[in-house]
From TrEMBL:
Gene3D superfamilies: Aldolase class I. GO terms for biological process: carbohydrate catabolic process; deoxyribonucleotide catabolic process. This is Deoxyribose-phosphate aldolase. It is an enzyme of class 4 (lyase). The gene is deoC. It comes from Micropruina glycogenica. Its EC number is 4.1.2.4. It comes from the Bacteria. Pathway: Carbohydrate degradation; 2-deoxy-D-ribose 1-phosphate degradation; D-glyceraldehyde 3-phosphate and acetaldehyde from 2-deoxy-alpha-D-ribose 1-phosphate: step 2/2. Transmembrane segments: none annotated. The keyword Disulfide bond does not apply.
Length: 316
């Protein structure tokens, strides 16, 4: 990060024009180079002796998620039980980082995980489209926070961002963070709709400057969702942001990560690009519903030498 960039950060939000100049002054992304670098990192293998550690780490980073119109209190309680004890037959199996639910289910989830270290995350701000007035988006956030959410996952207005109304998006994030109270804020970009890698980099910096605790790829409702190249760019951004400001911001790829093999690729990439400080559920998460079962199956295979059937673990 250049000295010029560091000095610009102090007044980057002074006006829409200043913010626009800063975001468009970020280095352009070499798409071919980014794709090749991500593919190279994704092809690396880890030693068998490290694989169990990696599987346990990945489990501890999962935000176990249910975001369906047919969600019921019973389904949410079952999800919370699984988050606390992913493998009931093995008490050494780590718990997941969080359960992620709609705002109206926060109270049920909070009660279910009470006394455990599992966090409750709530999607808010007219998830997944983000198409609502700021008043509605903020009230959505306040309700989830008041119900006890530890984390709020907001969505940006992609239409505003793509139209170049950066200060509007910035002010939304600032306002939502304030409405979160003590809850941590994850900002979802819906990278599948941002169209270019340059936009992913710009959105990352905009969200971090506005106070995001985490930047997140996707809602899981739009394809493509999380990909290695897009996450690679976001991990680069948080690394550079810490270099410029001294502040760490987390990263959460979400949607489409279904296998333990893929999860390990992400962990290798994070270690190589940002460093081991991010290999912690406080700074890296997986937004997933189906990933956890494959992690558990691979973990059991390493312990017993045989695969469990697909119905050995609960299906979410």
């Amino acid at each position: 990060m250049s000295t010029t960039t560091q000095s610009t950060l102090a007044d980057v939000t002074a006006s829409d024009a200043t913010l626009r100049r800063f975001l468009h002054g970020l280095p352009g992304v070499d798409q071919v180079g980014a794709d090749q670098r991500a593919a190279g990192l994704g092809s690396r293998s880890i030693k068998t002796s490290s694989k169990k550690w990696a599987l346990d780490l990945a489990i501890s980073m999962v935000d176990l998620t249910t975001l369906e119109g047919m969600d019921t209190p019973g389904k949410v309680r079952a999800l919370c039980s699984k988050a606390m004890r992913p493998d009931p037959a093995d008490p050494s199996c780590p718990h997941t980082a969080a359960v992620c639910v709609y705002g109206d289910m926060v109270g049920i989830a909070k009660s279910a995980v009470q006394g455990s270290p599992v966090h409750v995350a709530a999607v808010a701000t007219a998830f997944p489209s983000g198409r609502a007035s700021r008043t509605v988006r903020l009230e959505d956030t306040r309700e989830a926070s008041a119900a006890g959410a530890d984390e709020i996952d907001m969505v940006i207005d992609r239409g505003a961002f793509l139209a170049g109304r950066y200060l509007e998006v910035f002010d939304d994030i600032v306002a939502v963070r304030e409405a979160c109270g003590d809850a941590h804020l994850k900002v979802i970009f819906e990278t599948g709709e941002l169209q270019t890698y340059d936009n992913v980099r710009r959105a990352s910096w905009l969200a971090m400057l506005a106070g995001a605790h985490f930047i997140k790829t996707s809602t899981g409702k739009i394809q493509p969702a999380a990909t290695l190249p897009v996450t690679y760019l976001m991990v680069q951004a948080v690394r550079d942001f810490r270099e410029a400001t001294g502040q760490m911001v987390g990263v959460k790829p979400a949607g489409g990560i279904r296998s333990a093999k893929d999860a390990i690729k992400y962990l290798v990439m994070v270690n190589e690009v940002a460093g081991p400080d991010w290999l912690n559920p406080d700074w890296f998460r997986f937004g997933a519903s189906t990933l956890l079962n494959d992690l558990l199956m691979q973990r059991t295979k390493m312990a017993t030498g045989r695969y469990s059937g697909p119905d050995y673990f609960t299906l979410d």
